[in-house]
Design goal:
single chain, alpha+beta, Ribosomal Protein S5, domain 2, 4 strands
Length: 142
């Protein structure tokens, strides 16, 4: 058996019938991510913030017609790399459900506190919704 044939038969990480984690259209696109350091600094210097027990949110209204961009910060205080990645994945999952509701022209920075690693997903989601409505990122409940 040739080496190439062997690698084609053996699955490296998942089996053939395993679904992809994100159905198309449910991803957190790169166009919606805050990626440059200068944008994070702008939000910190000129934006307004609101915080609760698990997260702090910074918001800057740019007035541009560009789609909203969201950045996530998890410092080493949150935990080791595995824990920080888990918190980031949870926050991205929360954002995927409501990114279409965030109005254009906003720069949003979410900073996870150390307690965010210790709570269940629903509690983290509830706090995001509370702060997002407080800062008028999301429309109020009717």
């Amino acid at each position: 058996m040739a080496a190439n044939a062997y690698f084609q038969k053996v699955s490296r990480s998942t089996s053939q019938d395993t679904q992809k984690p994100d159905p198309v259209g449910q991803r957190f696109p790169k166009t919606a991510r805050l990626r440059q350091t200068k944008d994070f600094a702008k939000v910190r210097e000129h934006g307004k913030t609101s915080q609760a027990r698990l997260i702090r949110i910074g918001l800057l209204r740019t007035g541009a017609d560009q789609p909203a961009k969201v950045g996530i910060i998890t410092s080493r205080r949150v935990g080791g790399a595995v824990i920080r990645n888990k918190v980031r994945r949870r926050l991205r999952e929360i954002l995927k459900t409501c990114i279409s509701q965030i109005p254009a022209g906003l720069l949003v920075v979410i900073i996870a506190k150390s307690t965010a690693a210790e709570v269940p997903f629903k509690q983290l989601q509830g706090e995001w919704l509370l702060l997002a409505r407080r800062l008028s990122i999301l429309p109020p409940l009717e």
